[in-house]
Amino acid sequence: METSVEPIRATEPLNVLLIGNNPIDMSKTLEQIKQVRGRKIITEIAFDLRSIVERLMNFSPNFILIDDNIGRAELNQAVETLARTRKTKDIPITVIKNSNYQESSASSGVLDYILKQNFSPESLYNAIRNSLKFRRTQLYLYKAYARRKGQLRRLAFLA
């Protein structure tokens, strides 16, 4: 497996791909992103699958933030596309949800959720930090397993 996500240092800018289709919600989210202290955050905005692909041609995100207002089908399609794309398959995805009661069937590629009512620069920063750490841990475990799977097979046969 050729996955690798390097740790992002506090001095490096954080590249966030923001996906949504409601300009009012997107502007509020962008304002919250700008208020995150201690990090330089570069943001690109995409409104649909086509604009996601266009943004990814010239932008390499470290983090992807999706507003669930885009609709369930579009959310699933966006997460599936991002999970399949070589450039973004290892990038953590967080969804901003309107309600805790809405089911999200796109959960297979999503690492975190933030409720809009709790959305703040601090909750965003915590989601980014936790998602990046969790994703790095996942990738490390994938690599460690791949390296040691032969040893595990031999142990299983001995037992």
Helix content: 40-55%
Per DSSP, the total helix count is 4
What is the number of beta strands?
5
Q: Count structural domains.
A: 1
Strand content: 15-25%
Largest sheet report: 5 strands, parallel
Level-2 CATH architecture:
3-Layer(aba) Sandwich
Spans of 5+ residues with little confidence (pLDDT < 50)?
Answer: 1-5
Shape: elongated
Organism: Chryseosolibacter histidini
InterPro entries: CheY-like_superfamily
Protein name: Response regulator
Please name the defining characteristics of this protein.
5-stranded parallel beta sheet, disordered N terminus, CheY-like_superfamily, about 15% strand, alpha/beta, about 160 residues, 4 helices, about 45% helix, Rossmann fold
Describe the protein.
The chain has four helices and five strands; from the N terminus they run βαβαβαββα. By secondary structure, it is of the alpha/beta class. It has a single domain (14-158), classed as Response regulator (Rossmann fold), CATH 3.40.50. Strands 2-1-3-4-5 form a five-stranded parallel β-sheet. β1 (14-19), α1 (23-34) and β2 (41-46) form a beta-alpha-beta unit. The longest helix is centred in the C-terminal third of the chain and has 38 residues, at 121-158. The two termini are 28 Å apart. InterPro entries: CheY-like_superfamily. This is Response regulator.
